[in-house]
Amino acid sequence: MDSNTEVLVAWRSGLSGWDALVDRYSRLVWSVPRSFRLSQTDAADVYQCTWLCLAEHLTRLREPDHLATWLVRTATRQSIAVLRTRGREVSYDLWEPVSVLPSPDEVAITHDRQRRLWSALMTLNERCQRLLRIAAHSPELSYAQVADALGMKLGSVGSTRSRCLADLRRKVGDLR
Q1: 103-176 is classed in which CATH architecture?
Q2: Considering the chain, what is the average pLDDT of its residues?
Q3: Where exactly does CATH 1.10.1740.10 map onto the chain?
Q4: Distance CA 22, CA 8 (A)
Q5: SS3 for 20-71, per residue?
Q6: Which pLDDT does position 1 carry in this prediction?
Q7: For residues 160 and 107, what is the distance between their CA atoms, to the nearest angstrom?
Q8: pLDDT grade, residue 128 (50/70/90)?
């Protein structure tokens, strides 16, 4: 089976199309939560949730040829949800001396900076949000890899990234 359409038709017919989909896109789906630097356990949860979402929405997919983009977007959203949840958790080693823990002022300042950055990032359009997340969490990716993952033209990645960063800087400054 070559095309996504053929695989989806086979799956809908009760054939083993699902295994072909997982084989084809497993590495791609797995790379997204890992690019967010999630733990092995959290990345595995995102991976499973992404495939579960696909199973739930498979009959509603209108453009099978854009399945890779759909999977990346879904895994990205799942990863961000995990990061938000983990961002609210503060873990401390109870055996560490108390002097190692940050002061309440340091914690408040750090949380305020993070809140302002996330608030500004969330006001950007989805394309900028996705591009900046990839740039922040996977700086080793080439422009060609970024363009492929986001469905962009190769020549527009650098200029779009620059515009998105400038917009983010401006919006963070406005939140001060």
Answers
A1: Orthogonal Bundle (1.10)
A2: 82
A3: 1-89
A4: 12
A5: HHHHHHHHHHHHHHHHCCCCHHHHHHHHHHHHHHHHHHHHHCCCHHHHHHHH
A6: 45
A7: 33
A8: very high
Listed in order, the ranges of the chain carrying CATH 1.10.10.10 are: 103-176
The answer to whether 100 and 75 have CB atoms below 8 angstroms apart is: no
CB atoms within 10 A of CB 22: 12
Query: Three-state DSSP class for 174?
Result: helix
Residue 103 CA to residue 148 CA, distance in Å, equals: 44
Q: What is the pLDDT of residue 14?
A: 60
Q: Does domain 1-89 have CATH number 3.30.70.890?
A: no
Contact 37, 140 (CB under 8 A): no
Q: Per-residue pLDDT for 2 more than 60?
A: no
C-alpha 49/C-alpha 176 separation (Å) is 37
For residue 159, pLDDT beyond 90? yes
pLDDT tens track for 15-27: 567 777 788 888 9
